[in-house]
Amino acid sequence: MRKEIALITGASGGLGSEIAKQLQGFKTIILVGRNQEKLAEVAKEIKQIEQVVILQCDMSQRAEIEALAGQIIADYKQIDLLINNAGFGEFKYFSDFELDDIDQMFKVNVLGLIYLTRLLAVSMIKNKNGHIINIASMAGKIASSKSTIYSATKFAVIGFSNALRLELAPFGIFVTTVNPGPIATPFFDHSESDRAYLAQVQKLALKPEKVAQKIVDSVGYNKREINLPGYLECAARLYQLAPRIGDFLTAKVFNFK
Ligand SMILES: NC(=O)c1ccc[n+]([C@@H]2O[C@H](COP(=O)([O-])OP(=O)(O)OC[C@H]3O[C@@H](n4cnc5c(N)ncnc54)[C@H](OP(=O)(O)O)[C@@H]3O)[C@@H](O)[C@H]2O)c1
Hints:
By secondary structure, the chain is α/β, with parallel strands linked by helices. It has helices at 14-22, 36-45, 62-76, 99-127, 148-168, 196-201, 208-218, 230-241, 243-253, and strands spanning 5-9, 28-33, 51-56, 81-84, 131-135, 174-180, 225-228.
């Protein structure tokens, strides 16, 4: 795989910034997010890549995504690595969701990801080169209470990626989905009002550096999925094989939200 230009969405913090700091071997890295100050801070810490570019984009706004993709194609012609990482979750009962909140989560986690991929994949197909890494979640494999909308967005990302992988394989383009369990990032600052879930899973939470390392190690390889940690990967397999047992365990034993 050609390794010249990489783009990471949600690069201003959390997992995205860790991936940006660890990624190696590319000439240019494009950091995308809404918060320019935070993007600039992350950029300062990237020493291993020659050119770091910051581009502001709200992934819930289709016009901004179109402008972003247009600028990238005009400036660079093609992206070699696209890491769709921007996303957020809100954990509360389904009946407490405002419809606008549901719209927003689907716009950022699903539609924004699909639009940007659609706009950038065309040049990958033309050049028969590229790797798309979509950050989904274990919540896209195992659904739990208070996670209806978030799980729905991540199931959508996995379904989209599974079909896309088949379509892009003949062009030599890889599609990898990353499905982590809880990661210790600022994600939980806006995902729940009482931080009860984070308190319950804090000890088990993955370190963002470790998740980022697995992702960076997969770049340029035809890896289907990265599932972390191992025990949740096993749980996800069990959930597929025995969904009723999975529902029981999720509702009665591992109901942390
Ligand atoms: N933390 C976890 O437990 C966990 C577990 C599994 C999967 N994930 C997934 O991992 C990814 C990264 O999450 P994280 O844990 O690193 O959370 P985080 O620390 O909250 O970072 C989320 C990133 O997404 C960006 N973002 C959010 N809304 C956006 C919008 N409307 N437009 C553009 N960018 C937006 C933020 O950038 P700006 O604020 O600058 O826009 C931020 O850089 C997400 O897709 C999340 O669903 C997280």
